Amino acid sequence: MKKTVKIKIDIEKCKGCRLCETVCPMKVIKFSEGVNKKGVQYVVLEHPEKCTGCGLCIIMCPDCALELEEATGETGGKNKK
Q1: How far is CA 34 from CA 5, 37, 71, in A?
Q2: CA-to-CA distance for 48 and 37, rounded, in angstroms?
Q3: From the CB of residue 20, how many other CB atoms can be counted at a distance below 10 Å?
Q4: Residue 55 is part of a domain; what is its CATH number?
């Protein structure tokens, strides 16, 4: 089975600073149209299939709102909302 690593975003921890978006080499992190419980516009993985799992966004996030998630199989990781 193929193992892949993808990014999981905890939208409730996100404060919308967009630091993760600025460092993403694949440009797959974007602002959502929704807001979290704090009223903050959070980021989402717009094209999860293009995410390489490099982890730069995780390093940049000051609130630990992103983490790597290992997935097995053809579908890869999915962003849980």
Answers
A1: 26, 10, 26
A2: 23
A3: 22
A4: 3.30.70.20
